[in-house]
## 1
Amino acid sequence: MTTLQFLGAVGTVTGSRHLLTLEGKKYLIDCGLFQGVKANRLKNRAPFPVDPAEIDKILLTHAHIDHTGYLPRLVKQGYGNTIHGTHATMDLVRILLPDSAHLQEEDARWANKKQFSKHTPALPLYTGRDAEKVFPLLRGHYYGEEIFLEDDVRLKFKNAGHILGSAFLDIKRLDGPHSKKILFSGDFGHPQRPILRDPTQVYNVDYLILEATYGNRLHPDSDPDSYLTRIINESMQRGGVLIIPAFSVGRTQTLLYTIRLLEKARKIPELDIFVDSPMAIRALDIYNKHISELNLAARKKYMRGEAIFQPKYLKICASVEESKEINKVKKNAIIISASGMITGGRILHHLAERLPDKRNTVLFIGYQAEGTRGRAILEGRKNIKIHGNKVPVKAHIEEISGYSGHGDYLEMLAWLSAFNKAPEKTFLVHGEPDAVEAMADHIRQTLGWEVVIPEEGRAYELDF
Ligand SMILES: [Zn+2]
């Protein structure tokens, strides 16, 4: 019997983990950390719903922490088998997990210093050493490579266009004309973006597990570059600096690529661009190593010998000293720093410094999950809490959704509409409840397919 159990990313966009049980073997699809509202974060501390030692393999769709960030904790609890993903995903996991561990340790340190934790002493969810214990288990694969889970069940990674290395998991039972397929979308990419390729079109799927982050929304700004041009120019006229919270991997490279293009076209002045991230240099190395995964426009620039991620006055700050030096800069600069949803990292210090000044601008370019400081600022909160202190929000706030890594509901429907047949079932995950409900309605009304909104923890039987 084949079953699929949903252990996370149900009614929320974080904590992606799904358990596929196939011929008695257990495959965990993604192993994400819960982020955002406290009720979710507490789930990271709860015992894992399945004995980790009983899991046979972990298959990763992509490197984002809400899909991989629980790995060190799972290994600590006894998981010792292999972890599979694309080569780029593995390279990114090697920099993202230690960074996640660092954030966990930093949070615990702050909590102990300020004593605002109810647990004394506050303990990190995992440490850098725990993160490193994941590395020997990682196995990288090429897109399209055939990996056999069983003699007659093969797995392929197909480009999902979400971040570098992101993949749909295409799991097929090879049984002559009756072959069946399960497809996990992971995070569904946003087509026609800078740098990355579009999500791969698939045609025959029997069981689809689809994300629904933007199930109730459209990206209003089909030309995000013109929005970015306006925001950069206006923020410079305001006489302050522009702060952009962004994941160090993915969104940061999109920004550098786009800023360089805008500079070259003389649409914006050549400004000091600070990328305040100890990971940024390694992330750029990984992008340079995996050029073959980029879209045609980006690869053409590479072939011409262009340094596509290098605005003229780019400064990458690796050390804490360099990071603190940025505080002296009062105008004509852009600061890009993580985390993208302001849940931790160096961006906290920049916002504590810059938010109280109305000359500054904060620009959000990614999805802000419920319960995060990013969402609170976007919803117009007058104060936010950073490291236990109240910080007034006086800076100018802007948002661009067009650089999002996720396709909106129309883009997802367009992709689904190219399928040869309706899947037997489509399970919707990775969305807040309104988004999932809306996406289910869109699919039922437009395509007439059977859609299931799974319950957390419940195992569904698949005819596979
Ligand atoms: Zn993602």
Note: The first strand starts at residue 2 and ends at 6.
## 2
Amino acid sequence: MKIKHKFDGYAAIYDEWFMENENLFMSELKLFLKVLGNTSNKRILSVGCGSGLFESYIDNTVVEGIEPSMDMGSIAEKRGINIIKYGLIEDIELPDNTYDIIYFNGSSSYIENLMPVYEKSLAALKKGGKLILLDVPKESAFGFMYLLGKSLKTYNHEFLENTMPKLPYPLALASAGIWHSTEEKINVLKCLDIEKFLFYQTLIKNPMYTNEEPEEVSEGYKSGGYVAIVAEK
Ligand SMILES: C[S@@+](CC[C@H](N)C(=O)[O-])C[C@H]1O[C@@H](n2cnc3c(N)ncnc32)[C@H](O)[C@@H]1O
């Protein structure tokens, strides 16, 4: 029997949402490019690479991908990503001491138990390699909005009247999320003996204004609606 994954059936909607929220996408893309840095001659793994949308703005021939949803992954493959395995990261074995960078761009927000997954990823990194986690923090305005939408089962509620972006993230995908706070992820990594961290953020404006113009990346994690943790092994 074919398992239905969270993003099956949403690949086109996911990409269209970013294309319609072009300035929000540009802000997230700037953060992605900043934390990835120079990718040439590096071995890189994207966990939950989705449709490979962000990777289509870099030399994606250096990126290997893991993705549970065939709908998403088949688009990534068309865009040039080498999907090494279709499946959940929880179920996939990774080789030890192999990668320079492993990143989760938005995928930690769909994973319940982060500890074993980050432990596995750290083992697969070379010494000095980087585990990069980009996500909407649970504690951000975006996190609150998604959790409120999830619990109300709609964004069209009087509590949210005149507060919402024109085209909010699809409710089904917001509701499927297991939103984690940034400090929850930092604490998991600290338990796994990681001591060296860098933090960057974007989407500082409240969600209803986020798509007005692209934002710059700033250091830190306490204000942004999209935050990157860069953890060095
Ligand atoms: C928000 S999307 C991000 C996709 C892509 N990284 C991007 O930035 O456009 C989250 C992705 O994580 C994938 N995902 C969800 N649970 C996963 C898991 N347990 N292991 C690996 N990927 C997972 C989903 O299928 C989806 O493609």
Note: Strands lie at 44-47, 63-67, 82-86, 99-105, 125-135, 196-202, 218-219, 226-232.
## 3
Amino acid sequence: MSRIHRADRARHQGGARRRVAALVPAAVLLAVAGCDAPLSIFSRASDSARSVSYLAWFMIILSAIVFIGVMLLYAFGVRRNRERNPADVDLSERGVGWIVWGGAVMPGIVLLAVFVVGMAAMGRYPEPPPVVTIHVTGHQWWWDVEYEFPNVSQHFRTANEIHIPLGRPARLVLTTADVIHSFWVPQLQGKLDLIPGDTNELRILPERTGVFAGTCAEFCGQQHAHMGIRVIVDDTTTFKQWAAQQLADAQPAAPAVAAGEQLFVGGPCAMCHTVRGTAANGQVAPDLTHVGSRLTIAAGTLPNTLGNLEGWIANAQAIKPGAKMPTLSAYTGPQLRAVAAYVASLK
Ligand SMILES: [Cu+2]
């Protein structure tokens, strides 16, 4: 094969490889930027989530520039020294400047830039005072949620789903009843830990309505992966309606579900769960007063349908092994269905 031919072929292959290599970062960027994935920090829906995503873009682009710069210098060094005999290289004579610049000055500048921009992103707190304070307590493996309003008679409790009003700052006070958990709803805020015996505060100033999924972001035991949280951003009117409905006691049981209520209130369920307006006031499990109005059950594990409620109540351990709700095998099939129908009626 002639030398010219070989060089030609190499150039051709190199071109193809370069084209493919150029496509990879483009595809990654498209995948990251274009998606509206529920757990993506790039589909932001609040002011602080915006600064987190800007910070991420800043770091991605800066790292790309640093990477390309280092690779170019590397190629330049290899090319320049290709003909030299290693034995001829005298380290004391040259190269120290490169080491000082490449090892200290340039990284120093880059890290300082990331530090400054990062501090600015962290410091962003919506200024107006919060209109609602929400106490969130982590449990293995669900979230207790208590609303505090200026008027004490308006406080109420719910679980696993947090409603907040659009355009108003909400203040979340985080703590835990057992191990360390971490509250993370990426489209609305950065992560923050829930620490035993301590409280941490998050503010969220939402910029659009919607249902924003989140998850516990600190490994907390067997069912860590099934410790989902949802933040629902409502317009102000919807939020007020929702809060009024949550504040109310449970409606008296309709005749069709009265048998289920008796089983619930008179049985083991009431030792762990509260249904306000009934004698059930257990304190170690999610408040069920309006569980029928939630989107999911068992901390985002299942959609809230009658069938799933029946399955959960019949055998919680099969759905979420290790969860602190036992499988209650003393019930007959019709009794289970009656209890589930009652629970589903708690809107
Ligand atoms: Cu957790």
Note: Residues 138, 181, 216, 218, 220, 224, 227 surround copper (II) ion (CB under 6 Å).
